[in-house]
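Q: what sequence does this backbone want?
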């Protein structure tokens, strides 16, 4: 999609110099994913498990924003609800329905949509356990890989 060529600029000062870093949306996803892996390996309490879940949620939103095009996939979901600008879950649902259409892709489509549902559900768990966190990271990893394969962006 054209959105993979969009850059996010970050500027910060180091001494007398200003450094500008251009991040593509995939760079942002890679950076967040690396933080998920680092933080999840160190997490020991509920707040830390939830923080990892929030990072997973951020990846879902970033993935949705990266690949979703309302002109191609539609502005409403299958229940005719509008798809919001930060509704990564619905964006990805519409994306998978379009990209994996037809009987040949039935199982792939079901897997992608189930992975999206699982990753999304686990990020909302208020009393998260280590197991919840690990399942969320696993589902988010699968979701990133599915979209990466479809977009030919391998993490």
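A:
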């Amino acid at each position: 999609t054209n959105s993979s060529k969009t850059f996010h600029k970050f500027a910060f000062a180091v001494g007398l110099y200003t450094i500008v870093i251009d991040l593509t949306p995939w760079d942002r996803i890679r950076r967040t994913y690396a933080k998920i892996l680092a933080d999840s390996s160190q997490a020991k309490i509920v707040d830390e498990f939830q923080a990892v879940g929030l990072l997973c949620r951020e990846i879902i939103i970033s993935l949705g924003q990266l690949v979703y095009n309302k002109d191609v996939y539609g502005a409403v979901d299958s229940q005719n609800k509008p798809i919001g600008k930060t509704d990564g879950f619905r964006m990805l649902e519409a994306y998978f329905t379009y990209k994996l259409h037809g009987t040949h892709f039935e199982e792939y489509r079901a897997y992608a949509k189930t992975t999206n549902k699982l990753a999304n559900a686990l990020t909302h768990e208020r009393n998260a356990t280590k197991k919840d966190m690990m399942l969320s990271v696993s589902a988010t990893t699968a979701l990133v890989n599915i979209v990466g394969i479809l977009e030919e962006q391998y993490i």
